[in-house]
Amino acid sequence: MAREQLRVLNALDAAKTQWYHFTAIVIAGMGFFTDAYDLFCISLVTKLLGRIYYHVDGASKPGSLPPNVAAAVNGVAFVGTLTGQLFFGWLGDKMGRKKVYGLTLLLMVVCSIASGLSFGSSPKGIMATLCFFRFWLGFGIGGDYPLSATIMSEYANKKTRGAFIAAVFAMQGFGILGGGIVALIVSAAFDHAFKAPSYVVNAAASTVPQADYVWRIILMFGAIPAALTYYWRMKMPETARCTALVAKNAKQAAADMSKVLNVALEAEEDKVMKLTRTQANSFGLFSREFLKRHGFHLLGTTSTWFLLDIAFYSQNLFQKDIFSAIGWIPSAASMNAIHEVYKIGKAQTLIALCSTVPGYWFTVAFIDIMGRFAIQMMGFFFMTVFMFALAIPYHHWTLKPNRIGFIIIYSLTFFIANFGPNATTFVVPAEIFPARLRSTCHGISAAAGKAGAIVGAFGFLYAAQSRDPTKTDAGYPPGIGIRYSLIMLGVINFIGMLFTLLVPESKGKSLEELTGENADESGETELQTGPTGTVPV
């Protein structure tokens, strides 16, 4: 049996969609806009970095980053993000969401600027400095995952909570789009101001000295949206659930939410003290009670996010082949350095507009209608189908007349990932764990996802190399080839479907009903697993 809900929390659950909901989405969402911009903008400038710092006189192709340098530059932010998700997730439960929220944003602002100011007396020194600041940038970005999700979850009403959390995550799509647009504007301006021949015409003159400013400006621009949001983050009150259920301050929770909701709310101090002393509100993360109540849930959220990100981030491996096949990016030797940035920015902008952004907002529209479980299961299912559809007749897709079909299936895979597990794996961990462990558990789930991203982005970079040693990319050993890599990814998505069965459905329920925090002394409440089954928690 469930106890009567605290009035302040009941008021939040029952509140109609109001202006403060949209304010919270924008404040939290601008953090995610910055996160996506900062994580993905590096892919826009890695070709340029290779041309500037690794040019070889007399070479038939422009300079490129060596494999180990490319892996470090692209991957160090992922490592920082993973670390930040664990650390700030834990800190958000210990110190409160609001206190830590501003710290992550400050770190992102400082490190975005510092990344663009990377210095050194040699190419190796500049890359090392860039990697140092990108690690700490990732560390700040990592903190934004559990904190933004938890804050939005705890502010939202139960009817549209899924859409609100998904809307925060959907700002990632605009961040990726923003990165492409900034790259287009900066590169077009420099290309117009500093004319240069293509590499094949004059290799040395194809990279003008001013090209060094282009990548620095693109990286530093990420500080602007984060800085603009800082003031408003600091004005947000702490969430009532954190104040009441974690800090045990009923008076402050009622006062804060009275201002937010514009209603008079009574401080229920006796009820808060009684509620927080029950077994359902006292066990720790490493206790048997947590394992019994939420062990399978944490396994479900971590495993599905890990498996999803292996598949999601490995898809980037095929972009260069696809962009070249449809003529979006000509051969590197036929362009100058800055124009190449323009072409890459254009391709990323088109992909974001056509498949990435729409997929996120389809989730926002349907998550509180279809439910989290159905969207995640559907997403993994179709990702499995699309991967096998690409892999089994792979030779067919490599023939020039059939490449348009490959592009369509590839775009659909991105779309269904975003209208599927890429969004739901972010939403669910912010709903199904107790308030005092919510940020920590979301951080653990997100860190598992980022570990999957590292496997997907770099493990498959090696795996997808040709079996023929003469056909591998420079510096890479032979792998299993793209066809077998796609088959592996199809299997990974199928396993994701199986682990989705451990993830409970949270649609339309209050957070306390889901977590058992308002359960009676026996601690029993019910939490759905999948669409029909129930497990005691």
Q: Could you explain how this protein is built, in words?
A:
The protein is mainly α and 537 residues long. The chain is built from 22 helices and 2 strands. It has helices spanning 7-14, 19-40, 42-53, 67-95, 97-116, 123-155, 161-193, 211-220, 223-235, 240-246, 250-261, 269-276, 288-314, 319-325, 337-370, 372-391, 394-398, 403-418, 421-427, 435-463, 482-500, 511-515; strands spanning 526-529, 533-536. The chain has a two-stranded antiparallel ribbon with strand order 1-2.
List keywords for this structure.
537 residues, disordered C terminus, mainly alpha, single chain, two-stranded antiparallel sheet, 22 helices, 2 strands
Q: What strand order characterises the main sheet?
A: 1-2
Work out the radius of gyration.
24 Å
Extract low-pLDDT stretches: 523-529, 531-537
| Helix and strand sequence | HHHHHHHHHHHHHHHHHHHHHHEE
State mean pLDDT (0 to 100 scale).
88
CA-CA gap between termini: 12 Å
Query: What is the number of helical segments per DSSP (H or I, 4+ residues)?
Result: 22
The largest pleated sheet is described as: 2 strands, antiparallel
Structural class: mainly alpha
The helicity comes to over 70%
Judging from the principal axes of the Cα atoms, what is the shape?
A: globular
Percent of residues in beta strands: under 5%
Count every beta strand, where a strand is a DSSP E run of 2 or more residues.
2
